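Incident log entry.

Two folding requests arrived from the same account within the same minute. Monitoring flagged them as a possible duplicate submission, but the sequences differ. Recording both here for audit purposes.

Request one:
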Amino acid sequence: MTDTSLLETIISYPWILSIVILFVISATLTIYRTFSHPLAPIPGPFLAKFSSAWLHYHTYKGDECSTIRRLHALYGPVIRIAPNEIDIADGKAIAEIYHTKASDILKAAHYRKFDVDGHATIFSTIESEHRLVRFKAVASLFATASINESRHVIKECASKFVSRLRADASCSREVDILNLARSFACDVTTACLFRDRYGALDETRVPVSAFVDSFVTIGRFFYLPSGFSVVMDWLSMVVFPDKMAKSSVQAVDSYLGRLVGYDVKKGGYPARLMEAGISVDEAKAQSKDLVFAGTYSTGMTIATLCWLLARNPEKYAILRRESLQHQSTGANVNSPPYLRATIKEGMRLSMASPTRLTRTVSGSGMNFRGHHLPAGTNVGLGAFQLHLNPDVFPDPEQFLPERWEQATPEMQRDWVPFGMGSRACIARGLATTSVFEAMQQIIAADVLNGAQPVKNKIEIKEWYNSKVIDGQISLTWPKEGKLI
């Protein structure tokens, strides 16, 4: 067949022509991304040069952070993980990416997947002005003075939490400390910010953990194409419905629906938003997002700390001695130095949000370690890479509170459990206070005496918010160590 007849054949059959055009476009794009793209000189796996498919696979599977960590070990601190995406495992980049003006480098577009009920939240919105209006309306609720005024509420919730833990442990059965810690965190968040305790610690309530996990699973779609995410999310709800999650979400929705109806007089979180001109529907959505965020991260931290102390009884013994000493002297609740170091170390290892916090470069781009990242490039760092960096945290997977007794500037810089820069967690002060109070009371009551972890490792799906595999972090008390 001559070249002319071949061309005529291709033109005569539109489907063949379509395949040829698609092949030519794909080949041209692959060659460009591999050899001529501005990010081509940056090392990384070959597939990442021309396709994001491999990254989407690991994101959905839940081993993205571990995979990227291995790639950093092979290629160095700056790697190309997708045609237009860079991951950095060097804390020196924090200032460049997260401490610039908000207008210079914005959250990446895929954060909008965390919109709630069709509303861009304080967390998910990309537009700075949209966030600023809402942030200003509620910022005073998160101020130190407001948290101090609510300290008695936090103490009451912590006392109820410890009582529940003691009662469950006394039964000499496995105790899901993650569920209890989330219940405590939910009650603190709602009591302090909504002026109305949800009652998650009350045994009559549907477990709030199911509501939290329904939000967490959205993280598996975080980096996936939007259309694909919608379809997969719909299929997961239709094909694999979770009745407990549905009941838990309905319970939270019912609580918030009642709350926005009368909160104006109380001056809590929804009321502040509505006073700023935010609609009732959006105020409810913003509040729903806050219930999740406040419950998830604080609950994960406390549960991880309890598990770590059960696994390291010698560390727990030091905390007990310190607690008894401070009880006898009446020292300030936040002053015990070993407790502070333990909590800091627990937050480093808890990996509540392990994955990279992606930003989109704008303007003239940015330069880092001799690499130029042009405008439009997605770039980020994550707690998984920073917190487990052996150059900053020797023996990074070991639980060593002592490392914080002489913390280096690099350790302080790379410790990022609440995110980084102007978009860091708005509730970090309340979360820190809640963790301190809960752990202070747990140790003072000696409720972890004899506790043992059911599993030797906390295994997680490395989504945007980590999901504990099997959904539980459980402790058990042998009969000889049974609490009375």
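Request two (distinct sequence, not a duplicate):
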Amino acid sequence: MNTATTIERPIISTEELLNAWKGHRNLTRKVIEVFPEKDLFSFSVGGMRPFVDLCKEMITVSAGGLKQIITGVIEPFEDAMPQIKEKADLLQAWDEATEQISIYFPQISAEKFHEDINLFGEYKFPVIENIQYFIDNEIHHRAQGYVYLRALGIEPPFFWDRY
């Protein structure tokens, strides 16, 4: 009889999850880079917001949400970001948010992933569900950016080109 203890490996580690998320952020950054400057701030389809506004939301939700998870300081949702006036400003804000994600995410303990948190004073879910929402939100809004680019006659980056 074998009495050896088997240690099961999780399906995905926190490091692998962070790397997958950063891959999505890399791809979204490529979408921002492809946008013509004027259209980034003004073009929309079917009444949807311009892509810059979708990006501001993604920045606020992800970096702002992780900051709230780590610090416990809950602040209302605010994504106006008046300092973003050009594509270069948006890319800088995007890169800064990605760096914040790289700093905050590894600070989440295994236990913390299962704690409820009331992010932005609006959404009370376990931390892992909030992080899944951050990633889903980015994929959703990036897809809107793909629709905009195609409507403008611009080939978007390949969806699998995340690195």
